[in-house]
Amino acid sequence: xxxxxxxxxxxxxxxxxxxAVKLVPHYVDNYQFQDxxxxxxxxxxxxxxxxxxxxxxxxxxxxxQHELPVKSEQIKVNRTQTGVYIEVNYTVVVPVPGxxxxxxxxxxxxxxxxTAD
Length: 117
Description:
Elements: H1 2-46, H2 52-65, E1 75-79, E2 83-88, E3 90-96, E4 99-105, E5 108-112
Antiparallel strand pairs: 1-2, 2-5, 3-4
């Protein structure tokens, strides 16, 4: 009975490790992408020559660097005279035996000029 119990817990631990190996990298990629979006929002706030389309292209380039399944239509950019707001909505599909995880991510970043009211 003790061997069966040990085998059971070893199997549970193995499944948890397998799921962690499959899922955690996508969360890390999203965290890094979010950090780069924050940096981009700060830079773009003061780059007045950049249009919303230019910002969208920059975000798409960042997503491609991280191999994220982001399309241009999933990127929302709201640029005003005093700031910028960027939002990206995407889903990563992670198949595992017997189930498919749909991980939904919604990174967003915004920034205002220091002189803005």
